[in-house]
Design brief:
- With 245 residues, this protein is an alpha+beta fold.
- It is built from three helices and 15 strands.
């Protein structure tokens, strides 16, 4: 547990605190609250300081000794554990909760990037030879891309900071370099992304004759774009957790 905490969770990571309050009447469902905050510091192998959550301008004074579920949104994915509040503190103008982990961290996926299941429309095409040459030499710029070439429609079924998986009624050769165009939610608006990807594998879908599943790894993706994709995934996962609660 100690090694996992410091290895995968760092200050600044977003964290959700899930609080479950049992009601006096056992026939009533427990009250579940989800508080959004962030990691302030890793104090030891099994102790973490998180910023005290707020609602509007009011601090949420969770009681010392209470136990909660923590969901860490780290670079490698979503991690979950059980923790107990052992103290409160104030540093640099931040009010903090000092929490001891009382269970092991559990990771949702054992991949470098957490894959988020979805259903997103995508358009794509294979790069032309001149474009591929530019990618290999110094990276393809917008000016070097050939405009107005036809794009094929498909559906992304999972996406991560490292690549995506999509389904289509056509297939690309393994090793093909693709231009992939799709939209993601950002700040309550939709933003269009164009990324390059290499086809790692293509499989015929047994339960859907005439359809193919493609697994794609990003090529030369800008770090800022990758971070925006990861942020989108974490925000959508946060919404799903709230719906489940």
């Amino acid at each position: 547990m100690a090694e996992l905490l410091s290895k995968y969770v760092v200050p600044g990571n977003k964290v959700d605190i899930r609080s479950i309050k049992r009601r006096l009447n056992p026939e009533l469902e427990p009250e579940i609250r989800l508080y959004e905050t962030q990691v302030y510091d890793i104090l030891s192998g099994d102790r973490v300081a998180v910023v005290m959550p707020m609602e509007k301008t009011k601090l949420i004074l969770l009681p010392i000794g209470s136990e909660h579920d923590l969901f860490f949104y780290a670079e490698g994915g979503l991690y979950q554990c059980r923790a107990k509040i052992v103290d409160r503190d104030k540093k640099g103008g931040n009010y903090l909760l000092i929490m001891d982990l009382i269970s092991n961290l559990r990771r949702e996926q054992r991949r470098q990037y957490y894959r988020f299941s979805c259903a997103l429309e995508m358009q794509s095409r294979v790069l032309e030879s001149e474009e591929i040459q530019a990618v290999e030499e110094s990276g393809l710029t917008e000016e070097q891309m050939m405009p107005n070439l036809p794009l094929k429609r498909s559906i992304i079924v999972d996406i991560s900071g490292g690549g995506l998986r999509f389904i289509s009624n056509y297939w690309y050769e393994e090793g093909s370099i693709l231009l992939c165009r799709y939209q993601l939610e950002k700040n309550d608006a939709r933003k269009e992304y164009e990324v390059l990807g290499k086809v790692l594998a293509v499989n015929r879908m047994e339960n859907r004759p005439g359809f193919y599943e493609h697994r794609v790894q990003y090529v030369n993706i800008d770090n800022e774009v990758r971070e925006e994709i990861i942020k989108f995934i974490f925000e959508e996962e946060r919404k799903n957790l709230q719906k489940k609660d």
